[in-house]
Amino acid sequence: MKQKLVAGIDIGGTNTTFGLVDAKGKILLKKSIATEKFPLPEELVVAVCKQIDKAFATLSKKYVLAGVGIGAPNGNYFNGCIVFAPNLKWKGIVPIAKMFEKTLKVKAVLTNDANAAAIGEMMFGGAKGMKDFIFVTLGTGLGSGIVVDGEMVYGHDGFAGELGHVIMFPEGRRCGCGRVGCLETYCSATGIATTYSLNKKEAKSVKHDSKFIYKKALKGDKNAIEAFNYTGDVLGLALANSVAYTSPQAIFLFGGLALAGNLIFKPTIESFERNLLNIYKNKIKILPSQLKENDAAILGAASLIWKELKNK
């Protein structure tokens, strides 16, 4: 009897990463193509499916393709559409799941990239066996996925769990969403860069990335350390507030900023515990994700369809 494989596809503004994954989370194929090379979504679907078909030319004796999981910005789980994604060239509403279903003749499921990564953490990472947790991605922006009783929280329209767009400071920084003071303008790679520049009283035109600030902090740079402390202080408060809604067992941090280790975890945990309601204190762990940075996108997307198949 042939073993099942699923395709995990992560569509980003710059690159689309995809692979074939078995039920244990082993990646048998991993590829990447430039999203920007495909002005039409149909063209990207054809290119990805050609690569998957090519791989199955050598795998078909042992494996069968069982489904496709897709992670994408503004991906809606309920209708399988990418909806007005600001960092993709494709405008409007794109029925991407149906496109993959039509080409590959298997079930395709879509959600946003942070939700996909959260399910990946539950199936293949540190949240294995947990039914209630929050997953936070600290990248260029701040994404999140909330799991309650073993199920992803999607809300009535598929767009629940956007912690990055909780307003922390009503008179604060301008966010890409069009509002001001959103959490991701403070607690992200972009946010900490802004904080660092403000600490140094530099002009907005001076650009630093989070890696630069991390290296400066390791060398004892006062402004860099203060930037991490401030970022952790704001993040800890936001996470403490989120606990009041779902009382999770743990909160996982993932992404480039989370790789800074204690520089970000220590101030975040201190602020978190300081701002928690007493009934939650010392009960909830803030942990680093156990998903490998290079594999997380594929595993997250693949776990999305694995979860669907297992729920049948």
Account of the 3D structure:
With 312 residues, this protein is of the alpha/beta class. The chain folds into two domains: 3-118 and 294-310, Nucleotidyltransferase, domain 5; 129-288, Nucleotidyltransferase, domain 5 (2-Layer Sandwich). 37% of the residues lie in helices and 22% in strands. The chain has helices at residues 41-59, 96-104, 113-124, 189-199, 210-218, 222-246, 262-275, 296-310, and strands spanning 3-11, 15-21, 27-34, 63-71, 75-76, 81-83, 93-94, 108-111, 133-138, 142-148, 151-152, 250-254, 285-288. The strands form three sheets. A five-stranded mixed β-sheet has the order 3-2-1-4-8, with helices on both faces. Strands 11-10-9-12-13 form a five-stranded mixed β-sheet, covered by helices on one side. Strands 5-6-7 form a three-stranded antiparallel β-sheet. The longest helix has 25 residues, at 222-246. It is globular, with a radius of gyration of 20 Å.
